[in-house]
Fold each of these.
Amino acid sequence: MTRERPVRFREGGEVRFLSATRQIVGFEHEHEAKAFLHDLHERLRAFELALHPDKTRLIRFGRHAAEQRANLGEGKPETFDFLGFTHFCTRSRNWGSFVIGRKTIKKRMRAKLKAIKMELRKRMHDPIATTGSWVKQVLQGHLNYFAVSGNHPSLWWFCNQVRWLWLKSLKRRSQKAYLSWERFIRLVDRFFPPIKVLHPLPLHRFDAKTRGKSPVR
């Protein structure tokens, strides 16, 4: 939104405005963050726009957040939700250094589980292999996005909930239906993808490996 490119709005029937993308901005000093927020308010006011009061906030976050909040007599550092993850301050188990923790937003997981439960009811009388392939596709898609470093507890909880939902659905196929635990475990081993980190931390993801290659001179 520069002065050379003013914002224009279309008014009329059947026009739906898309919500703006959420933005996270980090600053080293508190006064810089407050100055930026003030300038942003003023800039949007020039276009007769405003920031959402419930979705705009300043939080103390980062490697010094816990110490600073303790000195102020406050509790643990605040968290924020972004791109499907709840971000929080934590420390590495191996080195004890500061890292940004990420876990799947629980509200989204519960909504997804509710949709899976409804779909399993629709597929209750489909062949088990067909439903199993669908469950595998759903879980793999979930892992492809949320399988980041440090998110193991959320991944295990989600996959375990899907397992119980499928088990209940299989037991309701018929009053005379019988499914042993051993057979169900074989189905889980067949259709449930392994839970493992697919997106390591950037320091590992972008680590250049030159093993077996001669250095460039």
Amino acid sequence: MRRGMFPGMAILNDAINLLPKEDFFDAVVCSPAELKFLKKNLPDCIEFITPAIRDSWMDAGQQSVDRIDGIKSTLDNGADFLVLGGQLMKGNPEKDISAVESRKLSIAEALKSDALSLIKGEPLTTLINLRGHYQSRKDPDGNF
């Protein structure tokens, strides 16, 4: 609890109180546990920086287990930036996973998320990235 509120509500409350001040901030730092809630309740122009990324091969470390999540899920839930720290630099020696191996696993997890293919404001590029297809009918003059 923060100031008598759950962390997500405390962050939302702070953000709402700051939003009227134009150009005051453009990003929020929140754990994966608050990400969905904040993404749903803050304007689209706000970016999300999300620490506490620990995939299944990693030890939770100092993080509370209920506030961590993996790369794919966090990207899928709308994070714009991930803070990976130990996952990239230390790996998990207790599970015999080197930092190099952990980086390879981390990249593979990121590539599983369609979020890396989504480009805001560029639907055609997103469609191409996702190997999609769009067909539009032509008018009698042959124009789409």
